Amino acid sequence: MGKLTKRMDLMLKNINLKNQFSIEDAINNLKTLSKVKFIESIDISINLGINTKKTEQNIRGNVSLPYGNGKKIKFAVFASGKEAIKAKELGIELIGMNDLSKKITNGEKNFDIVISTPEAMDIVSKLGPILGPKGLMPNPKLGTITNNVSKIIKKICNGQINFRNDKNGIIHVSIGRINFENNKIKENLQTLLKILKKYKPTQLKGNYIKKIYISSTMGISMEITKDCMNLIN
User: Fold this and answer.
1) Which of 40, 103, 133, 197 gives 178 a disulfide partner, CB atoms 3.0 to 4.6 angstroms apart?
2) Which H or E run includes 232?
3) How far apart (Å, rounded) are the C-alpha atoms in residues 32 and 29?
């Protein structure tokens, strides 16, 4: 293990990571220990008791956080005609069809979400090797394949986030910024957990949500106590 930085050493001296924390105490700890010169994000990692080798147990969906997550989202929109015009009116810069595909193939990375009209999916599908591993392929379940591009852009800008488990059955999402009021971070988390409950596989036995961790961009990760987990089990 490499030598700890002074900042990380200070955090570990003040926080016993073997303990579990209430959501309130965890948020307060993150804020107290934040010493960086930028506004950190508040991130959640949720360890699910699913078998990712079984397709029907993999979790993928979206949720509208009541207070958003504070991040400015950059879009790449595959559309033409009226839908392209509507996207441009919303300030989207990366809009196109084959021309946009060429930009991405040549290394364009300045986007967080890809939205496509159904007619453009023949073009987008060829970008699978690039977009797929990053979880950026448009998906009708997430609303990112749509005939109403402006509607989904507005939803996402107003707080809708997508989530999906990784190969280890863990969901990683950002639910706010460190300068958010504590109750807003907590309500965003509760909203996420309530939606996740609806995605519980019917054939799953045992605990659905095993552990929940909260962290900030440059901070440590703390496990949240069972009383928070009881919201969804």
Assistant:
1) 40
2) none
3) 5
CB 33 within 8 A of CB 220: yes
pLDDT tens digits, residue range 214-229? Answer: 999 988 899 997 676 5
pTM: 0.78
Low-confidence residues in the chain, pLDDT < 50: 1, 232-233
Helix (H) or strand (E) holding 178: none
Q: Count Cβ atoms below 10 Å from residue 8 Cβ, excluding itself.
A: 14
Segment (H or E) for 162: strand 160-164
The answer to whether 155 and 143 have CB atoms below 8 angstroms apart is yes
CA 98 to chain centre: 28
127 contacts 104 by C-beta, under 8 angstroms: yes
Could you give the CA distance from residue 76 to residue 63 in angstroms, rounded to a whole number?
20
Q: Which two tokens stand for residue 101?
A: 């595909």
11 CB burial (10 A radius; 0-12, 13-18, 19+): buried
The distance between the two most distant Cα atoms of the chain, rounded to a whole number of Å, is 58
Fold of 14-69+160-229: Ribulose 1,5 Bisphosphate Carboxylase/Oxygenase (3.30.190)
Annotated domain spans of the chain: 14-69+160-229, 75-157
